[in-house]
Amino acid sequence: MDWGMQNRLAKIIHPEDGRCLMLAVDHGYFLGPMERLEVPRRAINPLLPYTDSLMLTRGILRTSVDPKCDIPIVLRVSGATSIIGEDLSKETITTSIEEAIRLNASCLALSIFVGSKYEHQTLSNLAKLVDEGEKYEIPVLAVTAVGKEMGRDARYLGLACRVAAELGAHIVKTYYCDNFEQVVEGCPVPLIIAGGKKLPEPEALKLAHDAITHGAAGVDMGRNIWQSDWPITMIKAVQAIVHKNADAKEAYGIFLEEKEKDKPSQKEGQKVVRTTVNH
Ligand code: R5P
Q1: Is 148 an active-site residue?
Q2: Which element (helix H / strand E) includes 108?
Q3: How many domains does the chain have?
Q4: What is the pLDDT of residues 142-199, one digit of tens each?
Q5: What is the CATH number of the domain that holds 87?
Q6: What is the pLDDT of residues 105-126, one digit of tens each?
Q7: Which of 61, 62, 110, 187, CA to CA, is 20 to 30 A from 249?
Q8: Is residue 274, in this structure, part of any structural domain at all?
Q9: Is the CB of residue 172 less than 8 Å from the CB of residue 191?
Q10: Mutate which of 220, 276, 277 to test ligand 1's pocket (most atoms within 8 Å of Cβ)?
């Protein structure tokens, strides 16, 4: 692996501990203004000091993140579908490699929909993106998106993650499931987990801890952080699990301790009209 690729990967997965805390704020690319991400800048800015990297589209990057900040960017480059459109799996590559380079992306992210109507199209997208990324030594994160009809079990997720790795993805994002270690074993590149729908904080922290205990390199978490009433506190607790080996109980202790301190700074981020669309 060449220097540029190694350097970029080290920004996403920290070489000191092999772990990764990625903040996902790309949801609007097909869901529109989700609850508490209506004004992206308000949700993103207070959380930047605590995340290792930020996953988002070019539109939100350009409009809502200060170019002078040094946060590594995981640029979502697939989409062109919406929650009310024909088929969510019909994604295409939406951002060119030149644009990703101009935006100084450290990693490119693209969804694959294994088992869906447009499986072939999304897997071809991944293969092409890996070729493009490797020309310029930019790694690719494959997001194993799960259609409504697919089960989130180790058999299905194991298949999707392995296919992604076989096509050359450098990191794979999936969901935590029972027998997660089987998914990890079958995937020769680092696996990170999505947080999924908002859970009560102790459950979300347990999910993160379980995933790491069973072999995940970290989390790419969104809703369970910025939909919390205490997003800064929540990301600090997740950080303790990812980088400080805290267990779920210790992390929740940190959450409870820090909650009151963080409250005033977070209220500002929530003075917005709520329009909820969940997936
Ligand atoms: C899908 O909308 C995106 O790829 C999200 O980044 C991903 O699902 C992670 O976010 P969450 O933790 O909210 O599931």
Answers
A1: no
A2: strand 107-112
A3: 1
A4: 999 987 777 899 999 999 999 999 999 999 999 999 999 999 999 999 999 999 999 9
A5: 3.20.20.70
A6: 999 999 999 999 999 999 999 9
A7: 187
A8: no
A9: yes
A10: 220
